[in-house]
Amino acid sequence: MLNWDRLRGMVVFASVVESGSMTSAADKLGMTASAVSQHIRQLEQSLGVTLLHRSTRKLTLSEAGRHFYPGTAAMISAVREAEEGLQILRDQPVGEVKITAPLGLSHGPLNSVLIPFMQQYPGLKITLDCSDVERDLIAEGYDLAIRFGPLKDSALVAQRLTSCRMIAVATPAYLDNAGIPQQPEQLMQLRWILSQPQTSLSLQHTHGQRWQGKVKAQLVGSDILLQRQWCLAHMGVSIQPYSEIIELLADETLVPVLPDWQSPSAGLYAVTPGKDIPAKAKMIIDALKLFFRKYE
Predict the structure, then answer these.
(1) CATH node for 4-91
(2) Transmembrane ranges (predicted)?
(3) Is the pTM of this model over 0.90?
(4) Does domain 94-296 have CATH number 3.90.1170.20?
(5) How far apart are CA 130 and CA 99, in angstroms?
(6) pLDDT tens-digit profile of 22-72?
(7) Which of these, 65, 85, 78, 81, lies nearest to 14 by C-alpha position?
(8) Residue ranges per domain, the chain?
């Protein structure tokens, strides 16, 4: 069993040897010279040996002290190395960062951020779990989660990345063929790609008018990425999270259907297990914020 008083005395002893005097060691340790002398006496009593020979001019190591000092110095060196390792882990992107994110983000914004990040820091190991299953960050050891909507677990810390809404989109080619709707009521005439046979839409015009209705699916797929691929193949209209298709909208690969009518927004958040965020996770969060800011 560790004796904490003895460990403290070993630190003081090593400092005296390294400093050459009790006064210098006291200054280094932030204590009085008498306190240093007391720690040395208690350590010698605990060990049953004399470690230092004292004279009016100087201190010298006894035979026991010469034998004891290297092990004590090695212990303190190991502690310092451990502290330095934690400092690096906290302040630099090293080690492993474990991330969980919605499936749909894996092929868009997340890749746009992570690929250059991994190229810049090749020594960093990234484990990315893309799933629509909400993971337990603390129990499963995740450093970072990307999540939609309000935070449910008060033990976690959330930082807003962007506002996000579900948006009905299609390819220009599909709309050229099917006809571009001008009013919400015309949405029923389009071919819909949904995750269920039908869904309710709640839309608000930029001038304040509201509309609610239901549309039926001609194509049903449970995977949001599958629905997106069908949409990109000009097969119909898909309802997609805006944050996941930002780049597709920017280059007009996909275009909004009824752009003046919008669905309610929800937040997209970076969630961490606590406020003490390692550098590796913080830098990814900052990169994601910068990415989304370009499109706001």
Answers:
(1) 1.10.10.10
(2) none
(3) no
(4) no
(5) 8
(6) 888 889 889 998 998 899 999 899 889 999 988 767 788 999 989 999 999
(7) 65
(8) 4-91, 94-296
